[in-house]
Design a protein that fits this description.
The complex is a heterodimer of chains A (193) and B (454). Chain A has helices at residues 3-13, 34-44, 58-65, 119-122, 127-130, 147-153; strands at residues 48-51, 72-74, 100-104, 107-109, 114-118, 133-138, 143-144, 161-165, 170-171, 179-180, 187-192. Chain A is α/β, with parallel strands linked by helices. In chain B, strand 5 (202-204) and strand 6 (210-214) form a beta hairpin. The relative contact order of chain B is 0.13. Classes of the chains: A alpha/beta (193), B alpha/beta (454). Chain B: Residues 291-312 form the 4Fe-4S ferredoxin-type domain.
Chain lengths: 193, 454
Amino acid sequence: MSRESILNAVKANKPEALPLPDIDLSVFDEDINLIERFKENIEFVGGRLLELDGLDTLDIEIKALYPEATKIVSCMKESALGTVPVSKDTDPHTLEDIDLTIIKGNYAVAENGAVWVSEDDIIVRALPFITNDLILVVPKNAVNLHMHQVFDAISERERTFGVFISGPSKTADIEQCLVVGAHGAISLTVVLY
Amino acid sequence: MAHAEAAAKFNENEAKVNWHDKALWFVRQKRDKQAHKIQGWEQLRDYASALKANVLSNLDNYLVQFEENAKKNGVTVHWAANAEEHNKIVHSILQKHNAKKIVKSKSMLTEECHLNPFLEANDIEVIDTDLGERIVQLAQEPPSHIVLPAIHKTKEEVDELFQEHLGTKPSGGNPEYLTREARKHLRNKFLQADAAITGVNFAVADTGGFVVCTNEGNADMGAHLAKVHIACMGMEKLIPQEKHLGIFLRLLARSATGQPITTYSSYFNKPEEGKEMHIVIVDNGRTEQLSREDFRRSLHCIRCGACMNTCPIYRRSGGHSYDATIPGPIGSILSPGKDLTKHSSLPFASTLCGSCSDVCPVKINIHEQLYKWRQIIVKDVPQPFVKKNIMKAVGSILAKPKTYDFVGKSTRFMLKNTPKSLINSKINTWGHARDLPEVKGDNFEEWYKKKTEK
């Protein structure tokens, strides 16, 4: 067990105590249209934004976007498109051939096009990654300017697993050519309502 | 092999060097665009730097706090003093679960510890799942860049590799096709894996959680499918509080690739029902670096690679020329602390232009540390005879204005009137692969005099 020897060495070698900085978040303020900035960024990262006035037409819109999808998981009661039921006990390996997954996102971030989803929203952790296509449904009033606001908003949650998702999975590892669709979802649509 | 010799090898293929140089500079330009797009970029850097300084000054307490919270979350925490212990710990966890097939997302720490060969020698299959890392793994090479591991490979080379190892059709190096094939190949590996290994981008002391950032989704595909998740972290990856993730996540991807954030920033706190999560905290020379007043700030590093993308030397010499896990400017201040003799040429692989320090998101004074390592190295490591004596001679010339004036005049005369064949001969190192500047006539002093006399 090296624990003690490491901690003792750190104690002996560390510099004199330096204080935590006081972080003044007002320096990051920007007077911008949040939805516009979010849209800009979601497109920049390879995603798509769909703006709706409410959720009544959600399923019709999704059907129009993904007419081929048959194996669909819906993690929100507002969408009745689900054809594959998923519960806490679902073995994630069985989700290998899911075409489309619909998830509620709690918060969106204008500065980077990311959406925060937590374990409660996705039922099984592998789901948003293993699905072929992904839809995140977020209320318009949940779009924040920057990450600091979102971390503040989620600070009281029960912490298990959560993820910021910004666009579909991608890679540029072959000669710096951007290819969308690496190991996670191949496409991402964010629905703002 | 010293850096300069290895770099000369890389430079034998001029077209490739030019591509490498431009590709990385393009990433640097993307970084600039993103940095200028948000309010308060410089404040972000200041805060990040101050936070890291606070962490290092209180690292022992933060480590204990992190361990305590991680344990409360049901995570097993291990401590490794060095690479060997780290590898043994990982191996013992895998043995306990009889895990034979492992998927691993990008972790420079496991590269540093040479985990793959160790596990392979113990009859365990380790698959690197980041596409770039998979490419270099198939090629049996180390990564040449910490964010773009296969930046030194052409698409045609990747095409051939995949034909040989994955049975793909010749595609002339079509990135779309090759990536699709890699997705299929690795999808199978994810589904069959007994355990997943990931790195750690940030570990949060006040929650015991940790964040892993990827664009490909490979860390999550591994961690959420396998029964066991082992996260390997260098001890300096800690940050004090969860809210500080806001600062670091805003800086990391913008600095690294010019993205506003990575596609996935996954925040692990508790293992999923019925699964196990382990964290291995690794020292491996970090506490020693912490003791060096001049060099401890190198431990601020969040491994974004911005210093590599901007470095005129790195861009033209390639990551492999550094012969170290972490190449480029940051590697050149970290590596000498591990093995001064082996890495003594690295602090000289720099023009000291300071561009690395300018782009560093956590404000490490990289170029100053390079200079400081040089001071130590010329004292401790024998320097080549010629270099040593030339430096002495030049030093004495520069110390005397009259001599300097005379030497300047003669040099200008020589440059003007010596045949090119002699200037670019073997004797003149400065003449290798470069044309010396055209001589304009006067030196600055003479020119200035003329101007002011008018």
